[in-house]
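Objective 1b: paired records.
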Amino acid sequence: MLYRAIKRIFDIVSSLCMVLILSPVFVLIAILVKGEDGGNVFYKHQRIGMNGKKIGIYKFRSMKLNADKL
């Protein structure tokens, strides 16, 4: 039980540190995606998580706007 608590705390703290360290890169990517064609910066889709629960995953959009119509 103690191991799981320590691991969970480590996971949360390390994730927050990495988000802070990488935030300038995330901002640059967002500016580049928005500047290319003015579309949404993020793409959301559904995945199946633990116990079959559907969860929404956000990703930086990498395709062109209206790519399905091109």
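Objective 1b, second protein:
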Amino acid sequence: MEEFLDWLVRVAQDVALKLLAAILVFVIGHFIIKFVVKKLRNGKISQKLEATVAHFLCNFVNIMLYVILTVTIVAIMGIPMASVIAVIASAGVAIGLALQGSLSNFAGGIMILLFHPFRVDHFIEAGSFTGTVKDIDIFYTTITTPDNRVISIPNGTVMATPVINYSINDTRRVDLVFSVAYGTDTQKVTALLLEEAAKHELVIQDPEPFCRLTKQNASSLDFTLRVWTEKDNYWQVNFDLLQNINSRFVEENIEIPFQQVDVHVKQK
């Protein structure tokens, strides 16, 4: 019995020392990782890289350092690495199947990093989501919508759907359609629309505004007005032209038609 108690004490002391060493290594390692990632994030290397690439790199380094720290703690605890590797290999297949979505998201993050379909602060449309890119992580892209909602989209989903980037070019074209009643002077309407486009200070005149009668609907004549402006002025130009042209139509007595249906009654 005494021998058993002595053995138990020795085992407990050994486990306690290993556990204490593991805790100490974890605490020190945690602070070292935070320090390294912070230095990397604010260092000269990150400043030379694009914001998207730098953020992605910092997240990747952070994960890898924690993996190394975990392996180190396992070794300190005296767990045979061969057994750990065997367990990891056995669980790897199951984990891989369970995390197919996460792996596709990681691959999507790599694709975004390599091909740059968009960057941080770009205004994009990805699938049914529209907003400003705030963060590109290893697994998710975070956007803020115009009404200030924050949406995290899996990178795999982003790369699997068409992405419209509204910020990559400096200018955007505003397309507006105006309907007038049949019998209205088409030359007068065209001149009026071009005049309002030329008067707006935010409309770019080169390329010059375009206006044509583009469709004869059942109840209206449709005119298409296309103007170019700086991307940041898109919505202001869009709403200003709608307001100004509607006011001009009222002043010039140009009729805005309602949908009409002709009913013919046949008498027997």
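Helices lie at 2-42, 44-48, 51-76, 81-98, 100-115, 155-160, 186-199, 234-251. The CA atoms of residues 37 and 61 lie 7 Å apart.
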